[in-house]
Design goal:
2 domains; about 20% strand; alpha+beta; minor pseudopilin epsh fold; about 230 residues
Length: about 230
């Protein structure tokens, strides 16, 4: 093989290698466009992060707001709480609300003035809205749509467990930041009793599920005494 033939062969080899590289880059770009949108959002993780932040905000409100009122024997039912409820009506989706049930007879269903304002947007309230229960509906401009976790993140089920009652889907906090699940019957600091939990004494769990059977889920834990909320 003469010198000229040798270099021509080398040039073809280099050209082929560059073409291969360009081909790989193009294919990688196509795959990125096709597959990345499927993985760029983890709905469960986003929903859990948001719920945790609002649990902590609820605790913060409780610690800075002294709701004690010696003239009202049921003052402790005014503690700040975060409550999950499945909407009735056409929406039929899970949402939650942060509120202090301080007016009237403490019905557990807040009036608009009892709901916390959104700290990011003071024109909105910290509720996803529920039809037929709260005054603020999901379609209202005053609601915070992200709190409708059924619509925003596709959450199909919310389950309480561990140190919390499974049929009572809310957490309240006292001025020390301690978490409660269910209000005491008579006294503000009753310990848990059979069938009627009050002050949380073991880790409470909240399951957020993408499917109704809760196979695909993420679990939030709320620790007793400190009220520390985290993903497990």
């Amino acid at each position: 093989m003469d010198f000229e033939s040798f270099w021509m062969k080398q040039d073809k080899t280099k050209a082929f290698t560059i073409l291969e590289l360009v081909f790989v880059i193009v294919v990688a770009g196509i795959l990125t466009i096709v597959f990345v949108p499927r993985f760029d959002r983890n709905n469960l993780q986003e929903a859990a992060n948001q719920v945790i932040s609002h649990i902590r905000y609820t605790q913060h409100l409780a610690m800075i707001d002294d709701v004690c009122n010696n003239k009202n024997t049921t003052w402790f039912k005014s503690r700040w709480q975060i409550k999950f409820l499945k909407n009735s009506g056409s929406n039929n989706q899970w949402s939650y609300t942060v509120f202090s049930d301080w007016t009237g007879t403490h019905t557990g269903n807040p009036d608009k003035k009892e709901i916390a304002k959104n700290p990011i947007d003071s024109n909105r309230y910290l509720t996803g809205g529920t039809s037929g229960t709260y005054l603020i509906q999901f379609t209202d401009k005053e609601a915070t749509r992200e709190l409708n976790i059924g619509n925003e993140y596709g959450i199909k089920e919310v389950k309480f467990g561990g140190g919390c009652r499974s049929n009572v889907r809310y957490i309240s906090f006292d001025y020390l930041g301690r978490p409660f699940n269910s209000f005491p019957k008579n006294l503000p600091y009753e310990i848990p009793s059979s069938g009627y939990h009050k002050l949380i004494t073991s880790t409470c769990t909240i399951e957020l599920c993408i499917d109704n059977s809760c196979i695909d889920k993420i679990i939030i834990a709320i620790e007793p005494e400190t009220g520390y909320a985290h993903i497990i």
